[in-house]
Amino acid sequence: MNVFMIGGTGLLGCEAAIQLIKHGHKVTSVALPPLPEGAPIPGEMDLIFGDINKKSDEEILDMLKGNDVFIFAAGVDERVEFPAPVEEYYHKYNIAPLERIFPLCKKAGVKRAVVLGSYFAFLAKEMPEKDFVDRNPYFRSRLAQEKVCEDACDENFSAKVLELPYIFGTQPGRKPVWVILIEQIAFMDKLPFTMYPAGGTAMLTCRQVGEVICGAAEREVPGFEAFPISMYNKTWKEFLSIVYAARGMNGRKIVSVAPWMMKMGMGKIIKDYKARGIDSGMDPLNLPDIMDINLFIDRRYAEELGATEDDIQAAIFDSIKISEAAYNGKVKLLEMKGE
Asked: What does pTM read for this prediction?
């Protein structure tokens, strides 16, 4: 099987390439330079450096010809900050590339697409009675992305969306997204305890993401499918206990707070966003309600796509250690980017 990927040098795309090559597939990727120093990018992967958005349709068509599967392992999530209106940026990075490339895939004879999405789309569909979609641009954008994938499907082309949760693991030379968590909780270090929501989240390791991407690429079931992906479910207390152990604060007391209490502290964040001209993809006054939910997912979907056991505690530990070092300015790393 021949695979063309956008984002093959990123944390998740690299893991996907490793798994695909292990399975005997040929992988070609377009990626933005520079490469993170020391990253385990497989030498067998053919790399085309450049910005896919600046390539002509003819250039992209030439890249796609001879491939069986297209993988979109790029884009941005809700943690990346943008000026208003934020939905324009979500469309630019997460949706517009698909609207442009899917017709080219069909013209080139590509049969399948795998797109990395978000478990917030899963939550929106699981709890339609909530106002999550109305209040959060990021929710709307991920549902819109899935609609583009569904609409592209026909008798000759299928699309699989992986609704990914929190992911842990590191890529040498690249800054983890979890630096933002350190920024959020560090101000409480001088307090006798940490206050955090009572809910929890689904999660998995970056290697497991690579496995499910490979499994989805190999899946020959026709039509559109969206898979909620998880291998582990942890409450925020369970998660933060590992985070604090990695920060050298083992045994730190964590107190669960009700959403209304968390909302009281959101005024400062709202003012900060306004001062910096930031349009948040997540409504700060709705986020406490979301984080109060046990956003858990059955692992059977991930296992169906080939995910195997991994050490999630070690992956969290490693992610936080390098995030802490980056937060304290002890290491200089490449930023995550929406290839």
From this structure: 0.94
The candidate with the shortest Cα–Cα distance to 221, out of 111, 117, 145, is 111
Give the pLDDT confidence of 256-297 residue by residue, as tens digits: 999 999 999 898 899 999 999 999 999 999 999 999 999 999
CA distances from 189 to 58, 111, 329 (A): 54, 52, 18
Cα–Cα dist 75/164, whole Å: 13
List pLDDT tens digits, range 89-135.
999 999 999 999 999 999 999 999 999 999 999 999 999 999 999 99
The full length of the chain comes to 339
Write the Ramachandran bin of 169: left for phi over 0, alpha for psi from -120 to 50, otherwise beta: left
Residue by residue, DSSP assigns 136-156 as -HHHHHHHHHHHHHHHH-BTT
For residue 72, what are its two tokens?
Answer: 């979109």
SS3 state of residue 232: strand
How many CB atoms within 10 Å of residue 112? 24
Sign of CA dihedral 314, 320, 325, 326: positive
What one-letter code names the amino acid at 239?
F
Give the C-alpha separation, 9 to 49, whole Å: 10
CA–CA dist 178, 65 (Å, integer) = 37
Burial class (CB in 10 A: 0-12, 13-18, 19+), 83: exposed
